[in-house]
UniProtKB/TrEMBL annotation:
UniProt keyword Signal present: no
Highest classification ranks of the organism: Eukaryota, Fungi, Dikarya, Basidiomycota, Agaricomycotina
Domain of life, per lineage: Eukaryota
GO CC aspect terms: ribosome
Keyword Membrane recorded: no
Boundaries of every Exoribonuclease phosphorolytic domain copy: 10-141
Similarity comment: Belongs to the RNase PH family.
Species of provenance: Rhodofomes roseus
Name of the featured protein: Ribosomal protein S5 domain 2-type protein
Length: 283
């Protein structure tokens, strides 16, 4: 049993909220328990001449820590996320434009979760949260053609006397005890080869990126087990992302309904006020 009572292959509670921030095409907040992040998508929009690409859209990603300004580690993470998300986007459909993604950490601890240069880097579970928040924001925007959906989870390695113990989605309390771990990002798409494991509910997936490391010599069998554990967790994330689309549409419909109702209510007030003034003038 883990410190929070979860099984080794069990994720923390996942939360997805489509924020609908102003001046962006899509935005979403994603969290594994207390590990949360926010992402927004703008584009395709006009791009500066020095960043313009003649054959595809320019993908620009910025990551902001919870505290202080973005440092070298935040910029390195931005480059990593660009490499993770690029295979999922059909950037060639909008050449000479810009697609901009901004990620913001919504948590911060001494372990480095979102503290940027102030802490000790970025934790694997927060990187996974940022990847999933970016995917949710892209779904919310619906303005950038996508080849598939990228889902990510973290896997940690807990010291055990009997045997190696790998756990999915380590919590903040478990992180100081880890002797290894990393983030695994998978691309889910129907265009992938059916040779990869898939079910009727979930499309095939392929591993895009991982930074799994340990403080012991490399063990291929351990990495394989960690990947299998992460793939199962990523499938659960994909299912929850799919289910969240219905809530996004319902929220959007209620927003439109409220916006349309407000002008009608405003129109009734001047009409009533005019009648009152006329009545007073007659008296």
């Amino acid at each position: 049993m883990r410190t929070d009572g979860r099984k080794a292959s069990e994720l923390r509670e996942i939360s997805i909220v489509y924020e609908r921030l102003d001046r962006v095409d899509g935005s979403a907040r994603f969290g594994f328990g207390e590990t949360k992040s926010l992402a927004s998508v703008s584009g395709p929009i006009e791009v500066r001449a020095n960043l313009e690409l003649p054959s595809q859209a320019t993908l620009d990603i910025h990551i902001r820590p919870l505290a202080s300004i973005s440092g070298t580690d935040s910029k390195a993470l931005s480059a990593t996320l660009k490499g993770i998300l690029s295979p999922a986007l059909l950037l060639s459909h909008h050449p000479r434009t810009l697609v901009q993604i901004v990620g913001q950490a919504l948590c911060g601890t001494d372990s480095g979760s979102g503290m940027g240069s102030v802490g000790r880097g970025w934790s694997a579970n927060l990187i996974a949260s940022l990847v999933n928040a970016s995917s949710a924001a892209l779904i919310s925007a619906s303005s950038v053609p996508m080849r598939g959906i990228v889902c990510a989870v973290a896997v940690g390695r807990l010291p055990s006397e009997s045997a190696l113990k790998l756990v999915l989605d380590p919590s903040e309390a478990e992180m100081p005890r880890l002797s290894g771990g990393g983030c695994f990002a998978f691309l889910f798409s129907v265009v992938l080869s059916s040779a990869s494991s898939s079910t009727q509910e979930v499309p095939p997936c392929s591993l895009l990126w991982t930074n799994y490391t340990t403080n012991t010599p490399f063990d291929e069998a351990e990495l394989k087990r960690a990947r299998e554990l992460a793939e199962g967790g990523a499938r659960e994330v994909w299912k929850i992302l799919k289910e969240s689309i219905s809530t996004m549409d319902a929220s959007h419909a209620s927003t439109i309904q409220k916006t349309r109702a407000e002008p009608e209510a405003m129109e009734e007030v001047p009409s009533h006020a005019e009648d009152s003034d006329d009545a007073k003038m007659e008296i």
